[in-house]
Amino acid sequence: SFLPPYSSWDAAYERELQTFQDIGDAGEIWFGEESMVRIIRWLERHEVPLDSSVLDIGTGNGVLLVELAKSGYMNLTGIDYSPSAIQLSEKVREKEGMSNIKLKVEDFLAPSAELSGFDICIDKGTFDAISLNPDDAAGKRQQYVRSLGRVLKPQGFFLITSCNWTKEELLNEFREGFEVLEELPTPKFCFGGRIGNSVTALVFQRK
C-alpha cells in the first residue's frame, strides 16, 4: 500500500471524483476491504454503542463511514483537508442514501473549535500521509497527536491503521496522553524467509 505524499492527495481525489461522476465508482479503498472489516469487528466486539460519535480522520472517499452506517452507527463525521475528497464522499453518501453522515473540509493539524468531544477517532493512512510530508514531518506528527488530544474525549478510543510505522514506533509517537489497548491482527507477508507485517493496526485509549 504505497501512499502518495500529502500534497498530491487533492489531485488524486480530483481524478477519483471525475471517475465517480463518469461511472459511479468510488475509486481506491486504501488498505482494502479487510481493514474496514477489522475496525467494525472491533467496535462490535467491544459493544461500542451505535450512537457513539465517530470521527473518520482523512475520510477520503467516505467508504468507511458508509460501512459504519450500514452497521448501524448513527453519529458519523468525516473530515478531509482535500475539498475534492469531501465532494467525492458527498457523492458516495448520496448514492448510498446515508443522510446521517456529516462531512467537512478540515485540516486535522489545525482543527476548528467545533471538532471536539468524539467517542471514537479512526485513521486509515492519514497519519502515514502526514508523516511523508517533506516539510517538517516530525513537527506535523506532534501537531497531529495534539489535535487528537483535543478532538477525542478522555477515555475515548483511537483506531489507527498504518503501513509506514511499526507497533513500537506508533507506541512512541502516541505516548503523550494515550495508552495502547490492543493490536489488531493484520495480514502478514513473507520476504526472503522472514515474516513481517505490511500493515499495523492499533487501538489506543485517551488517558
TrEMBL record:
<keyword id="KW-0963">Cytoplasm</keyword>
<dbReference type="GO" id="GO:0032259">
    <property type="term" value="P:methylation"/>
</dbReference>
<dbReference type="InterPro" id="IPR025714">
    <property type="entry name" value="Methyltranfer_dom"/>
</dbReference>
<protein>
    <submittedName>
        <fullName>EFMT2 methyltransferase</fullName>
    </submittedName>
</protein>
<dbReference type="InterPro" id="IPR029063">
    <property type="entry name" value="SAM-dependent_MTases_sf"/>
</dbReference>
<dbReference type="GO" id="GO:0016279">
    <property type="term" value="F:protein-lysine N-methyltransferase activity"/>
</dbReference>
<dbReference type="GO" id="GO:0005737">
    <property type="term" value="C:cytoplasm"/>
</dbReference>
<dbReference type="InterPro" id="IPR026635">
    <property type="entry name" value="Efm4/METTL10"/>
</dbReference>
<keyword id="KW-0949">S-adenosyl-L-methionine</keyword>
<feature type="domain" description="Methyltransferase">
    <location>
        <begin position="53"/>
        <end position="182"/>
    </location>
</feature>
<keyword id="KW-0808">Transferase</keyword>
<keyword id="KW-0539">Nucleus</keyword>
<dbReference type="Pfam" id="PF13847">
    <property type="entry name" value="Methyltransf_31"/>
</dbReference>
<keyword id="KW-0489">Methyltransferase</keyword>
